[in-house]
Amino acid sequence: MKSLQELAAIRDRMKQTVNTREAAHDTTRIVVGMATCGIAAGARPVLNAFTEEIARRELSGVLVTQTGCIGLCQYEPIVEVTMPGQDKVTYVKMTPDKVARVVSEHIIGGKPVAEYTIGAR
Amino acid sequence: MNVLDVAQNSVAAGATLIRITLEADEEQGLLTLTIADNGKGMTPETLAHVTDPFYTTRKTRKVGLGLPFLKMSAEMTGGTLAIESEVGKGTVVTASFGLHHIDRAPLGDVASTVAGLIQCSPDIDFVFTVRAGGEEFCADTREMREVLDGVSFAEPAVAQWLREFIGENTQPILQRSNII
Ligand SMILES: Nc1ncnc2c1ncn2[C@@H]1O[C@H](COP(=O)(O)OP(=O)(O)O)[C@@H](O)[C@H]1O
Ligand SMILES: [Mg+2]
Question: Which residues of A81-113 are buried (b: 16+ CB within 10 A; e: fewer)?
Fold first, then answer.
């Protein structure tokens, strides 16, 4: 059973890694489109999949959050990835099974998965 | 149930504390969802129109569907929707559903929903309570925030812990009461 003691252990682990990296400009942000239309199109499982994958790989300096509807409902769910020193990359029609590849190739490897991005057909 | 839709209204209203309570009452045969916030509240004028599907104060969309839809889904199951609100104080939305009514929308994965809400509004405090069959579980982010000591709820490791913490503690209660 998950407990607050376990939360304290997570905190200690996070604090250690926070100390070894520089502040905000060094953070990678993964933002999932999550307005009502996004939920309908399955943004919640995508948010959960990113959260799980990043937690499982114990990556630090990566935050996963949501945005309101960004007005491209036909492409939902949308995921924006902002990495230090890189232009923002927008993924469209994301599904949980695409998440592992984005994490390993883009978040860890630094190379966006072109075929999932908005320009690709 | 569109817990998320309703809670988003509280987030949009600038609330710093949102209490979400899910309570099953076997005797009355009702499942009640209460979302109480300390946001900016509504004027009596807004309150009077808020369950009208063609009324919204949002500029980004023409119709507000959150509360009208909640009202419809509650009433379809023999339940009710009540909204109390005061400008500068906050809002309490109470929706009751027929617990065993065939038209009651499935509860869905409430643990994920609430954990996702907290992850995505990491600076707002939430108190999530589930009460059923004489059992109660309460997750209070203020307590967790103290433990976290500056580490964000948006950290995937924390969000993941939260989802499992809420799930493990609420699933059995909801299952024993045959709500999910
Ligand atoms: N908790 C709340 N606090 C303050 N205002 C609220 C709250 N909930 C609803 N409202 C008001 O009621 C309106 C209608 O809400 P809703 O039916 O969810 O549609 P929408 O969020 O799309 O506007 C909102 O635009 C807002 O002005
Ligand atoms: Mg709304």
Answer: bebeeeeebbbbebebebbeebbeebbeeeebb
Q: Is the pLDDT of residue B31 over 80?
A: yes
Nearest Cβ partner for B160 among A11, A44, A55: A55
Tokens coding A32: 């999932």
Asked if residue A6 belongs to a domain, the reply is no
Domain that holds residue B171: 2-176
Asked whether the beta carbons of B19 and B7 are under 8 A apart, the reply is no
Q: Assess if residue A67 is contained within a domain.
A: yes
Answer whether residue A8 shows pLDDT above 70.
yes
Inter-chain contact A63–B156, Cβ cutoff 8 Å? yes
Average confidence (pLDDT) over A32-51? 72
Question: In terms of Cα–Cα distance, which of B150, B132, B104, B134 is closest to B21?
Answer: B132
Please report the ipTM that was assigned to this predicted complex: 0.82
The rounded mean pLDDT for chain A is: 81
Q: Is residue A44 part of a domain?
A: yes
Contact B139, B166 (CB under 8 A): yes
Instruction: For residue B83, give the amino acid letter.
Output: I
pLDDT per position as a tens digit, B70-110: 898 899 999 999 999 999 999 999 999 999 888 888 888 88
Instruction: Give B6 Cα–ligand 2 centroid separation in angstroms.
Output: 6
Cβ-nearest to B160 among A8, A18, A51: A51
